[in-house]
Amino acid sequence: MEILDTTINLLLLAVITVLLVEFLLPNMPQIVTAISNLLQTSSYPLQNYSIITSSQATIPGQESTTAVTTIQSSENYSALVNYTLGLINKDRAEYNLAPVSLSAEPSGQQHADSMLEYSYFSHWDIFGLKPYMRYTLLGGLGAVSENIAYRSSYVCVASLCTGSINPKYALQRMEYSMMYNDSACCNNGHRDNILNPYHNMVSIGIAYDSSRIYLVEDFIDNYINWRAGYPAFYNGYVAIIGNLTKYNLSSILISYDKPVSGMTQLQLNATSDYSYGKVIAGVVPNASYYYSSVDTIYASIYSVKGNAFDIEFDMRNITDKYGAGEYTIMLWLNSNSTNSFVGSTYTIFINSSGAQVFPSNV
């Protein structure tokens, strides 16, 4: 028995020696890197919005969430954002389009952080909010059109796998895919968004850990200098006062979404593109005009003089008809007699009592 034990021990020692010489030592740098990556994750510091703070919110249907380790240096984030902005403007320049400037509005980063923390991929978020809803709640006053992209990467050494995200490379590949590999998945929607001639700003969001990276491009049309305090909603009335920096006011439409509710990770990952909801009404200056396919709202004030506008209208008949939900005021602008686009949106959240509410989770 002692001879057998000694033989087994010698065989085990021989196997370990072979592993050490043939595999571990030659691959030691990769193994050290793999272990290091497993112990360290990174993302841009989560923005301080209650929508994504794990202490206040969890994914519906899940008991808990895992916090994300953050990058300590904001310089890394700024460099990646500027790099992405350069990719976008390079693509636009190839089609003789003006560059977009970087917006200080946080909608892009807020959504990237949310998707990373709660491990989903969608234009909606865990509270059921669409991009234009979040944009209003975060202070945006233009019109937003969102691109999102996701990439994951792993490297395995024997049975040990670890994330291997190279943020800069991943950003380049995601932008390229949205430009040149977009027809099969998305009918070139991302590409069209990048190349939209009316976009003049973009809010960029980048969030990543060692194995996953999320990119959000919130393209913005910003052509209105709003008077302080406007747009405004009070006692059922909407008031919009401002000056157009370019283009002309074409029309004012109102869309409706049913009340938002929490969405599970499974529900979010099953979504695709999004819309402004159902158009339910249009605003006109007086009884000389009307809409045949949707409700018509006659403005109590409708003044358009040159680039300046001052418009006020009562929404109570509409909110009484449709009840609780999200009502989005869309200002359509036109560049000529045939082309028009949404130049500003303002979402109003109405509860079952007909009063405006401000969701506490944003």
Record the SSE blueprint.
Elements: H1 2-24, H2 28-39, H3 74-93, E1 101-102, H4 107-118, H5 131-137, E2 143-152, E3 154-157, E4 160-163, H6 167-180, H7 183-186, H8 189-194, E5 201-208, E6 212-221, E7 224-226, E8 232-234, E9 237-244, E10 248-257, H9 265-269, E11 278-284, E12 295-298, E13 301-305, E14 308-314, H10 316-322, E15 325-334, E16 340-350, E17 356-357
Parallel strand pairs: 1-5, 11-12
Antiparallel strand pairs: 2-6, 3-4, 5-6, 7-9, 8-9, 9-14, 10-11, 10-15, 13-14, 15-16, 16-17
Helix pairs in contact: 3-6
Provide structural commentary.
Helix 3 (74-93) packs parallel to helix 6. The N and C termini lie far apart (71 Å). The protein has ten helices and 17 strands. The strands form four sheets. The chain has a six-stranded mixed sheet with strand order 12-11-10-15-16-17. Strands 7, 8, 9, 13 and 14 form a five-stranded antiparallel sheet that branches. A four-stranded mixed sheet has the order 1-5-6-2, with helices on both faces. The model is unreliable at 1-74 (pLDDT under 50). The chain has helices at residues 2-24, 28-39, 74-93, 107-118, 131-137, 167-180, 183-186, 189-194, 265-269, 316-322; strands at 101-102, 143-152, 154-157, 160-163, 201-208, 212-221, 224-226, 232-234, 237-244, 248-257, 278-284, 295-298, 301-305, 308-314, 325-334, 340-350, 356-357. The chain is 30% helix and 30% strand. It folds into two domains: 74-221, CAP (Pathogenesis-related Protein p14a), CATH 3.40.33; 226-357, Immunoglobulin-like. With 362 residues, it is an alpha+beta fold.
